[in-house]
Amino acid sequence: SDEEEEAEEYLFKVVIIGDSAVGKSNLLSRYARNEFNLHSKATIGVEFQTQTLDIEGKEVKAQIWDTAGQERFRAVTSAYYRGAFGALVVYDISRRSTFDSVPRWLHELDTHSDTTVARMLVGNKCDLANIREVSVEEGKSLAEAEGLFFIETSALDSTNVKTAFEIVIKEIYNNVS
Length: 177
Ligand code: GDP
Ligand code: MG
Prior knowledge:
Subcellular location: Endomembrane system
Organism: Elaeis guineensis var. tenera
GO molecular function, one term: GTPase activity
Helix content: 25-40%
Membrane topology: Lipid-anchor
Largest sheet: 6 strands, mixed
Number of strands: 6
Low-confidence stretches: none
Family: Belongs to the small GTPase superfamily. Rab family.
Radius of gyration: 16 Å
Number of helices: 7
Bound molecules: guanosine-5'-diphosphate, magnesium ion
């Protein structure tokens, strides 16, 4: 019935992964609170933020997880990945080493997930195009080779931040509905 459909609820866990200082915490704070922090320290306290979207008239909640800086020690635990239906794999377009790490993050994600994960490759800090070390083409072709969506973002000036999260969340919805 209509009533049963209205009662239907969706709650999806989405994780953000990638090397230290690529902008993971700022992507989340920009998306969830429209905030940016120029001197953000390792995330303290906040494990995740919940955002609610309307998709095809359904209320969809995304529980978006941020690391607490453990990635510096290559010690992101399996608990972090557990139950994730979506992932943003982030690198910094101005630091090639963070792009070179992407395959390792994808492997870690594969190792820990037991379901289809909607994955988006995110080249963050596109406002730093003047000191770019990774071209858009390189990002695109890695994403194509690995079967990921691809987008460049800036948590600083907000470019594509909402779009990046919402493409992943909509893809999860499509996968499960
Ligand atoms: P995390 O370690 O991946 O969570 O990265 P943070 O979100 O803590 O960001 C690391 C540093 O990069 C901070 O100094 C941020 O201000 C800066 N940063 C994050 N996103 C951007 C961005 O889109 N553009 C620029 N220019 N700096 C950014
Ligand atoms: Mg962080």
